[in-house]
Design brief:
mainly beta; 329 residues
Length: 329
């Protein structure tokens, strides 16, 4: 079947038999199980939806009316164990590429460099933007990306949503509810080090401190995740989130957590396309592959592996074919 995401059509059910499957591969980090994509598949029907945002990345540069890139703030360009730089983001041949490479003589220092693209309309972010930048945020509807993940250990790509509010997500959050803002992870690719082409839907709310709560779908196997384009989607309704991979529904949740309904976010959210470098930093020193140290001073390894186990002479690309957002008519 042709890639159904190459057209802007929303979903008519195509009958299929639901067949449960499980894969378990033993790696150095142990056994990580996943399910096969199965069940009912959908294709798009224009008559039921309005397109509110679309970018097929035609041309030879990023559309700066829609997106802004990040190197965060001046003299503080570190996130986890990597440097973020505008020049890691490029557009050509109908694709957006976020490149990750190791630079011995990078402008911020030696280490891994990568990029960050978002559509936030809120203030408070330093970015190189043109004067026509408008950004984009939406509450509810359908969000979709078609992309190929970077084949690299300790380096992972993501398509996710964050509440577009000037409130601080961790400090101003109302505890016990997800309705005042939720991080919605539609696609992530952190399991290359385990030999796995898998991803899952994940929700985070109640901030990022010790009150933080998270809810996740099962993990699903995506054949060729690092070598081919695949489509990852989210339908966000008043009562639930529905996650899809290549048209297969993988998860529907009303955000019931430990027996209590925490609810669906009521805050418009913006889109992010990012690459993370596994590890941490302290006082400007990068620690790739090490997330933290325990009370005995022993290193806690990054859950996604060590970026330094990659070939530092190669680059690793997160390639995005298109982004589409819709609302029901």
């Amino acid at each position: 079947m042709e890639n159904y995401l190459q057209s802007s059509k929303l979903w008519i059910k195509v009958a299929a038999v639901a067949v449960a499957a499980s894969i378990c591969t033993v790696a150095l980090t142990g056994c990580l199980s996943s399910k096969q994509l199965s069940g009912d598949k959908y294709i798009f029907d224009d008559s039921e939806w309005n397109v509110t945002f679309n970018d097929d990345f035609n041309g030879n540069s990023l559309d700066t009316s829609k997106w802004k890139t990040h190197d965060f703030v001046e003299n503080d360009n570190i996130r986890r164990a990597g440097y973020y730089d505008h020049d890691a983001v490029s557009v050509s041949d109908g694709k957006l590429t976020i490149r990750t490479d190791y630079r011995d003589e990078g402008k911020y220092g030696k280490g891994w460099y990568t990029g960050w693209v978002e559509s936030s309309v809120k203030a408070g972010h330093t970015a190189e933007n043109s004067s026509d930048y408008e950004g984009f945020a939406q509450k509810g509807g359908y969000f979709e990306v078609t992309a190929q993940a970077p084949p690299s250990e300790g380096i992972w790509s993501a398509f996710w949503l964050m509440p577009d509010s000037n409130k601080t997500f961790s400090q101003d959050d109302i505890q016990g509810t997800a309705t005042d803002g939720t991080e919605i992870d539609i696609m992530e690719s952190p399991h290359y080090n385990k030999g796995k082409s898998i991803t899952q839907g994940v929700l985070h709310w109640d901030g990022y401190d010790d009150r933080h709560k998270t809810l996740a779908s099962d993990r699903y196997h995506v054949e060729g995740m690092y070598t081919e384009m695949h489509t990852y989607g989210l339908e966000w309704t008043e009562d639930s989130y529905i996650f899809y991979i290549d048209g297969y529904k993988i998860w529907e949740t009303d955000v019931t957590y430990e027996g209590e309904l925490h609810g669906v976010s009521d805050i418009a959210s913006y889109m992010l396309l990012t690459v993370e470098i596994g590890g941490s930093s302290k006082d400007g020193v990068l620690n790739p592959g090490i997330d933290s140290y325990d009370k005995n001073g022993k290193a806690v390894k990054s859950w996604a592996g060590n970026p330094m186990d990659n070939d530092t002479l190669k680059s690793y690309d997160f390639i995005i074919d298109n982004i589409r957002v819709m609302t029901r008519k």
